[in-house]
């Protein structure tokens, strides 16, 4: 299942529509990295609302995406983690370092907007 | 291949023109540290756009430069990391701690300018 990637102003939105295979996760990573560069995006929101499971490969791939986009100058936000997913992630010791977390897509975009506004005012944080 | 270092107001710009040997990287480090001191620079932008590979020595040297210049009061920005370089850096576990990241040279200088403006408003950050 391919993940549609939408461009909205300076952000990219990847809205996951169903469970993804490992290969599909890697494809999502490669596409996001390429599009961040192409569109000079400032932020990426990955909406994981529909996922009711997050295995170690998925968590690792999301972490990689966050790290890679950061090296390109864009902040990644993971939005919509379900409570059961959050619980199992903690129990399995899975983390999402380098990414910011938001309740849902709307919250994620707001986060990037306020972050962008702050950076325009007072400079980027590393 | 020597790296030209340009002075622009309170910033130094090191524009890498091609692959650098380990010795050339160390020379760049030494020159930047000396010039930050000499010109009392507030920021350094290292433009790595032309690099299509970043090995562990290069990443470590860039990290050192960022740490050293920070101790002299100047923020280092690494600008123009290519998507493939970002991907391989994450896969190899290479990081650029202490440096800020910008999309390109222009973005890097803007980052330092807004950062400088903030510091003038609210006092320097350590």
Any idea what the shape of chain A is? globular
First-last Cα distance of chain A: 34 Å
Strand line-up across the major sheet of chain A: 1-2-3-4-5
Percent of residues in helices of chain A comes to 40-55%
* Quaternary class: homodimer
Q: Tell me the domain tally of chain A.
A: 1
The CATH superfamily name of chain A is STAS domain
CATH class of chain A: Alpha Beta
**Most extensive interface: pair and counts?**
A-B, 22 and 24 residues
Main sheet specs of chain A: 5 strands, mixed
- Residues in β-strands, percent of chain A: 15-25%
> How is the CATH topology of chain A named?
Transcription Regulator spoIIAA
Average predicted local confidence, pLDDT of chain A: 92
The CATH architecture of chain A can be given as 2-Layer Sandwich
Rg measurement of chain A, Å: 14 Å
> What's the number of extended β-strand segments of chain A?
5
| Structural class assignment of chain A | alpha/beta
InterPro entries (chains A, B): Bact_StressResp_Reg, STAS_dom, STAS_dom_sf
Pfam family, one (chains A, B): STAS
Protein name (chains A, B): Anti-sigma factor antagonist
Please characterize this protein's 3D structure.
Two copies of one chain form a homodimer. The first copy, chain A, has 126 residues and is α/β, with parallel strands linked by helices. Chain A has one domain: 2-Layer Sandwich (Transcription Regulator spoIIAA). Chain A is 49% helix and 17% strand. In chain A, strands 1-2-3-4-5 form a five-stranded mixed beta sheet. The C terminus of chain A is likely disordered. Chains A and B meet through helix 1, helix 2 and helix 4 of A and helix 3, strand 5 and helix 4 of B. Chains A, B: InterPro entries: Bact_StressResp_Reg, STAS_dom, STAS_dom_sf. Chains A, B: It holds the Pfam family STAS.
